[in-house]
Each structure stands twice: as C-alpha cells, then as structure tokens.
C-alpha cells in the first residue's frame, strides 16, 4: 500500500501548502454535466485528484412501496467508492462510513429540491467515487446537485459543497490527501449559495469556537467559487451565457 | 435581459413587482427565481417570466398526449391500462404510474361489441389521453397509430405477428383479433 507520508511542514515560509496552493485556494476543478446516456441527469467532476460520477434517475415510482410518502417525493442517495478508488483496495459495498455519508448527503440535497411537486415518487441519486483524494463527500454533493439540475428537477438553488480544515495552526480551504490524513481538523460544509443556507456541516478533529466560525466562513467562500463552476458547467452544456 | 439567456436553478430573474412567475420559476421574499435550467422567456405585455427547460424534464401526462401502457384488466365495457410512459419521451419513466380507463366506445371508429375482442391482459398499448382528471384518466385508441403495439399469444405466450387486421401466433398458429396499431412491433 502506498502510504501518504506526513510532510515535515504543511505550510512553507512563503505561506504555500504542500501542493503549492495558497491557504484559501481550491484545488483545480472541472465539472461536466450530462455525461451518462442512460441516466435522466448526470455529472462528472474532478477536484484535484478526485474523480466522481453522479447519476440521477426519476422522479419515478417507489419500490418498495412502503417508503412512498403521500405528499412529497423522497430522495435516495447512494455514495459508493469503487474498490480501486483508494490506494489500499476498498471492499466494495456499503459500509459504516459510506452509509453515514449517504444519509447526511441525502438530507443536504433534498432540502434544495421542491419535493412536494412529485408526490409518491422517488429521486434516486447514485454517486460513484472513481478516484478518491480527500473531500469526496463534499465533491460528490457538488456533482449530485448539477446532476439533479441536468435531470430537470425543480430546485430552490444548486448545492455547492467544500471542506475547510486546520493544519499547522492555520485554517485552510479544501484539504488535500496529506492534509486530511495528518491535519488537525476537517470541516465539510454544503450550502445553497444564494441564501447561504447551510445544509450539511460536520467536523472531524478539534477546533475552538473561533476556529469553527473561521472554518465555516472560509468553506462558504469555497462553495461560492464552486457555485460559479457549477453554473458554467450547466450553461456551457446547454449553450447559453 | 435578452431572450436567449440561460438561467440555472436559484438564479435571480426579477422582483415580484416586475414579473409574475410562470413555469420553471418560484417566488421567495418578493423575488422571482429560476427553479430549473432553461431559457428565460419574458412576456413584457403580460409581465410574466418563464423558464423553458433546455434539459430533459420529468414527463407529466396531459390531455391529448399519447401514452404507452400495459392492459391490466379487461371488463365488460372497459379495459384498464397501466400508463407507463409518454410516447414522445420513452426514455423517462413517469413519476407515478396511473391507471387509465378505455371505454368500449373509444376503442375504434367502427362499432365494437365487446372489448374482449380487441384487447387482452398483458398487451402493450399506445393510446391518447381524452380526459385527464385526478384519479380518473380516460383513454382513446381511435386512430390508425393507436392500439396494440405488442402482444403475445393467449394460448402459448408465443410471439404474435401482424397479418392484416389480425394477429397470428408464430408458434402455434392461433389467430387473435385485436385493435392493432399501424406501428405494431415497429418502435419497440
């Protein structure tokens, strides 16, 4: 197994991080909408070394029937990592981690969708992590919301999502793999950028109250940058400005 | 704002004083926003803004639409058809499958005595929506394109082939009478 080594220092004298980024800089991002033929809506995203596909099916009939809600649609979100997506083989199938991520992402995504327009139906979202390099749950959500927009599902806003964290006593945006594995804290945030409503907030590690506020504010800035990329992806696919 | 502008979900379109919101929009706190990805259409006379989808949209059956369904039950004067998709958009399923009723008087332009002579349980049918009301959809198969588009033999479940107005089983030779569509086995 290829271990991600802990660097001697996360931030050099010039204030650059191990991959040469500034403290408040995202990794390079590429988003493409409508990439899968058979899905109703889909999206491919690359953020740094992360490579993720999201596919949306529906609204369609709910099976099994007892999950059906008489007044609204339900969202089923499945986060799944390919066995080859990480350096050590990941045993395929749902596990404790991916079930948790699916649950919180589902709740983050459904708050943006007008569920009441499609009663008794289900919107299925499948996210497949092809290559993983820290921040997959946030990147997945960013892709899933573009895929929902691509499926023509009415939404209050897109969901943009990214993480911030703490390394070497500094709050930084969008942790990469060594920073995520050996850093002090990781704060994934998802929000609807127009209203700045946060729909997902988690924390791993130790932060003071002030640091949490700083981390959330920084992640919000990152989300707004991703929001622009999401809009560009949809507009360039469908030929508008 | 020019007419070819593409809006994405959550995009600000104008205030409620300026425009009323049409399809593909929603109002929040006195503003109108887009709810889907599409072209912004502004009707300056009606003071109305709409977003016309550029993506595929979840299909919603309406009066006049042609639909594809499966015959679930054949009674004395009606056949019950489980509507599965719209004929023009076969790729996307309907959000909720609904039952449509086809009355014997709506089967064809000619006189039909028993609906049993024209449909059988399991037939795949293309039909037109005549009346679309909550919990009651009335269908019609009047027209050459409408009727059974796929069926199997009632005796041996073999494949039925079109022969004139009848269907003949390729397996056992049994001849069955149906309201056969002109596109039988052509588009499936």
Automatic annotation (TrEMBL), chain A:
Q: Does the keyword Chloroplast apply?
A: no
Q: Which Pfam families match?
A: RNase_PH, RNase_PH_C
Q: Where in the cell is it found?
A: Cytoplasm
| Exoribonuclease phosphorolytic domain residues | 25-154, 157-222
Tell whether Nuclease is among the UniProt keywords: yes
Record GO biological process: gene expression; nuclear-transcribed mRNA catabolic process; rRNA catabolic process
Kindly report the protein's main subcellular placement as a broad class.
cytoplasm
**What NCBIfam families does the annotation carry?**
ECX1 (TIGR02065)
How does it associate, per the subunit comment?
A: Component of the archaeal exosome complex. Forms a hexameric ring-like arrangement composed of 3 Rrp41-Rrp42 heterodimers. The hexameric ring associates with a trimer of Rrp4 and/or Csl4 subunits.
Q: Which PANTHER family match?
A: EXOSOME COMPLEX COMPONENT, EXOSOME COMPLEX COMPONENT RRP41
Of which family is this protein a member? Belongs to the RNase PH family. Rrp41 subfamily.
Q: What is this protein called?
A: Exosome complex component Rrp41
Organism source for this protein?
Methanohalarchaeum thermophilum
TrEMBL record, chain B:
List the GO cellular component terms.
cytoplasm; exosome (RNase complex)
Carries keyword Cytoplasm? yes
Q: Show the InterPro entries listed in the entry.
A: Csl4, Exosome_cplx_N_dom, Exosome_Csl4_arc, NA-bd_OB-fold, S1_domain
> S1 motif domain spans which residues?
64-142
The UniProt entry's sequence similarity note says:
Belongs to the CSL4 family.
Q: Its function?
A: Non-catalytic component of the exosome, which is a complex involved in RNA degradation. Increases the RNA binding and the efficiency of RNA degradation. Helpful for the interaction of the exosome with A-poor RNAs.
Signal sequence: where?
none
For this entry, the protein name equals Exosome complex component Csl4
Q: Where in the cell is it found?
A: Cytoplasm
Annotated PROSITE patterns? S1
Highest taxon in the source lineage: Archaea
What are the binding positions for Zn(2+) in this chain? 153, 156, 169, 172
GO terms for MF: nucleic acid binding; zinc ion binding
Give the record's subunit note: Component of the archaeal exosome complex. Forms a trimer of Rrp4 and/or Csl4 subunits. The trimer associates with an hexameric ring-like arrangement composed of 3 Rrp41-Rrp42 heterodimers. Interacts with DnaG.
């Amino acid at each position: 197994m290829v271990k991600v080594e802990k660097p001697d220092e996360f931030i050099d004298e010039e204030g650059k991080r191990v991959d040469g980024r500034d403290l408040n800089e995202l990794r390079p991002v590429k988003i493409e909408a409508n990439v899968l033929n058979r899905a109703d809506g889909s999206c491919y995203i690359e953020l740094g070394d992360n490579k993720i596909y999201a596919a949306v099916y529906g609204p369609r009939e709910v099976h099994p029937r007892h999950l059906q809600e008489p007044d609204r649609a339900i969202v089923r979100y499945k986060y799944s990592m390919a066995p080859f997506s990480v350096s050590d083989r990941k045993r395929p199938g749902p596990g404790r981690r991916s079930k948790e991520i699916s649950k919180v992402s589902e709740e983050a995504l459904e708050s943006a969708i007008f569920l009441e327009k499609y009663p008794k139906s289900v919107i299925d979202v499948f996210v497949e992590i092809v290559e993983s390099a820290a921040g997959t749950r946030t990147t997945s959500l960013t892709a899933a919301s573009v895929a929902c927009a691509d499926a023509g599902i009415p939404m209050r806003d897109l969901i943009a999502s990214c993480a911030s964290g703490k390394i070497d006593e500094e709050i930084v945006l969008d942790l990469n793999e060594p920073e995520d594995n050996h850093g002090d804290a990781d704060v994934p945030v998802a929000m609807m950028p127009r209203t700045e409503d946060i729909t997902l907030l988690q924390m791993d590690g130790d932060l003071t109250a002030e640091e949490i506020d700083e981390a959330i504010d920084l992640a919000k800035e990152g989300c707004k940058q991703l929001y622009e990329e999401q809009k560009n992806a949809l507009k360039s696919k469908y030929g508008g400005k | 704002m020019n007419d070819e502008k593409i809006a994405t979900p959550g995009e600000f379109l104008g205030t409620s004083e300026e425009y009323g919101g049409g399809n593909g929009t929603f109002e929040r706190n006195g503003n109108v926003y887009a709810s889907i990805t599409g072209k912004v259409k502004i009707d300056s006379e009606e003071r109305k803004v709409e977003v016309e989808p550029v993506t595929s949209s979840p299909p919603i059956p309406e009066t006049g639409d042609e639909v594809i369904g499966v015959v679930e039950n054949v009674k004395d004067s009606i056949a019950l058809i489980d509507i599965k998709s719209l004929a023009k958009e076969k790729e996307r399923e309907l959000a909720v499958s609904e039952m449509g009723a086809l009355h014997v008087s709506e089967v064809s332009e000619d006189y039909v005595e028993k609906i049993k002579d024209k449909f059988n349980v399991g037939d795949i049918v293309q039909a037109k929506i005549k009346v679309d009301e909550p919990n009651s959809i009335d269908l019609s198969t009047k027209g050459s394109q409408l009727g059974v588009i796929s069926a199997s033999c009632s005796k041996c479940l073999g494949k039925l082939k079109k022969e004139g107005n009848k269907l003949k089983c390729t397996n056992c030779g049994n001849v069955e009478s149906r309201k056969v569509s002109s596109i039988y086995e052509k588009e499936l």
